[in-house]
Structures are given as structure tokens and as C-alpha cells.
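Give me the fold.
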Amino acid sequence: MAEHLTERRLFGTDGIRGVANQHPMTAEMALALGRSVAEHFRQRGKRCRIVIGKDTRLSGYMFESALEAGIVSAGADVMLVGPLPTPAIAFITSSMRADAGMVISASHNPFQDNGIKIFGPDGFKLADDIEIEIEHRLVNPDPLTPGPEPRIGKAVRLDDAEGRYVQFIKHTFPKDRTLDGMRIVVDCANGAAYRAAPQVFEELGAEVSALAVDPDGRNINDGCGALHPEHAAAEVRRTKAAIGISLDGDADRVILTDERGEIVDGDAILAILGTRLIAQGKLQGNTVVSTVMSNLGLERVLAAHQGKLLRTAVGDRYVVEAMREGGYVFGGEQSGHIVFLQESTTGDGLLAALQVLSVMVREGRSLSELAKLMTRYPQVLLNFPVARKLPIDSLPSVQAAIAKVEKALGQDGRVLVRYSGTEAKARVMIEGTDEKTIRAYAEDLSECLRKALAQG
């Protein structure tokens, strides 16, 4: 009997993710997924084409081969692009008029992990209902129907994919400006942008110090990249560079470092670019879309410039969904996913860095000057593992504790208690004016949640 799915089991907030060679990230699952995706996007009388790209993880070879086998076994064709940033694969999928794109990456996670995320023909991540349909096909695959010849696809390698992306990204930088004479540090996290990122900045005229550009399959995100911007910060100070650019493993997010080595995160980037878009009359509804994790300081600075912040659930897919539904053009996350819907369909670290560089060049101001725009509220985030994820609103003691803290903070703070969408963890975030006070609140609230989950 066919099993009917009503909710996602494999897909999380950013595709399927886990430890390589352990369920669900096995070669067997990838083969079945490739076949399922091909069956979903195949149209009668039309050859189905699917792009496959990856980051630099050792396990990427295994999953690339398995996905390829599954897709061609369903009669669809594969275009292999090798290691490329996630936004590059979204771009290639759309520009090549492919039916889907598949990215083998676990983003900022360590090399032991891997994941698979899927883009539709428009370059956007799939909606929940389509992911449910693909999972249903995994459980209930289409039967093979006999025909006059085997239903087998072919695979080709798209050798110029990286060059296509580099040209696309360069064209997002104003054509009447260059980066001549600017010293830039770019940390590629030994990941997917290890060739493309230095090339983009060098071709625009910058003097580039490239870090973490020697991937060996195991060193992706290891003490470098967007999770460790101190790596680029040290090089910025040493070389007296104007900016440090730290990408994550698949380069869909970026954290910047100013000329003094101070960190400039996604919220600050949203503030810098969002206020300029408002001033230029280019921000639809004067609205920036971000998540519940964004700092209260971002909300306040946008309001001071006659703008507003629309918050979504955590995850760049939810930011993009809200942008598309509301007709908004700019948004992102504190973690460094920055989305320009008029240019790209997903977060792009290189694109975001170039837009900030454009402001620096146009206004003749340093990044530290630009970042002063936003006054950051102290924010404490505590994470801890959980064995199960009971609904937060079903825990009376936790609800009472949250209400108590919210009352104490008033208008000058926020409380957010949630579960990770990709890991078995709970997250307690509290924002306020005094870090010592909010840390105590966060620790008490975390302990309250631990006890409630243990008893529940």
C-alpha cells in the first residue's frame, strides 16, 4: 500500500542535512532522491535537465555520483558544475533553463556533515508542498514502464559554469567604479568559493589577500570563514586592509570585518544597505525583511530612516518567501545571508560584499564609519541539546517564565525561545540594554526549559 505523506520528514529548513554516511545522508538516499527529483520535474514529451553542484567536502564525490545515477536512471539529464557557491548553482539553474538544481553542501557545518538542497527552474528553493511530494516519491517511486529503448539520461560537465557566475557577480558592481588601490582580505573557508571569490575582487582591481583557499576535503569551515571572522580580522590588521570578507563553506553568507578588525555582521550589512536603498527610493515599501533573530538595533535604525523591519521565522528560505509574497526586494539574516531579489534568488555572500564595497567607494567612507549607523543592543544566545522538541506553547512553566522576563524588559528588549530547524537543539535568545542582566535571564530561562522538557 502506498504511503501518503502530509509533512516533511527528511527536509529541514535548508534541505536535507546530517552526518555523511549516516541516515539520512547516505548514498542510497541520494540515489533515490535523484530519481525522485527527476520524476517530479520530468514533463511529458520534454527532456528533463538537472544541475548538480557541490562544495569541497570529501563526501561530495559520493553524493554527486549517487544523485547523478538516480537522475539518469529516471531518464533525465545531468549537468555537473563541480565546486561552486550555492547562489552560483541557483543562477546556473535559471540561466541554463534547467528544470532543477541540486546543491551538495552542509553550508557552515564541519566536513563530517553534508546536505542536499534543491532549487526549482526559477532558481528559488522549493516550497514545503513540493518537498513533501518529492519525499512521497522516495517512498513510492514510479514503476518502470517498458518501452522500445531504455529510459536512461546522460551526464555532461559544464566546464564554464564558474566563469559564467564570476561575470554575473561582477556585473552587479557599478560599471563606472572599480576597486583599484583597495586592499581586501577574503576568507573562502576552504569551501566552494575558493577560486571564484578572489577572482571577482582581483578582476575589479582590488589587491587581494586570499585566505583558506586550499581545500583538502576535510578543512572546510575549520577555524576559518564566516563562523570564524577573527581569522580575516587578524589579516586585515596585519596588512592594513580596508575590509575583510569571510564567506562560509557554500558562500551563501558573509560576515565582514572593518579596517580596525571589528566584526560587521548581517544585521549591520542590512542597516548599511537598507538605509541607502530607502534614501534612493529603491526599497519597496521601505521594508527590510529579516528574521526574529535580528537585533533590535536594526529595527530602530530603519525606523529612524522612515523604514521598517518585517520579521520571519529563522531561515533564509522564510525570508525569501516573505519577500516574494510581499513584493519586497531586500532582506537577510544576522548570520550573513543577504538577499537582493532583483539580482539573485538566494543569499549570496559575494554579492552582498560587493554592494557594501560599492557604498564605501561611492561615499569615500571606511567600513567602520558606515557601521556606526546602527547601535547594537546586547544579545545573549544560549543553545543546548534536546532529546525531543515539545511545542514551547505547551509548556506552562516556560510560558510563565517568558512572560516574566518580557515584562521586566519592557520596550527595551526581546525574548525568543525556539528549536533549531536543522539540529536537535533548543535556542534561548534575550535582548536588552544590560548584558549581565539578560545573560542571567537567559540562563534561568534555559534551565526552566530543560526541566520542562525532562518532565514533559
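The chain has four domains: 16-159, 164-260, 264-371, 379-455.
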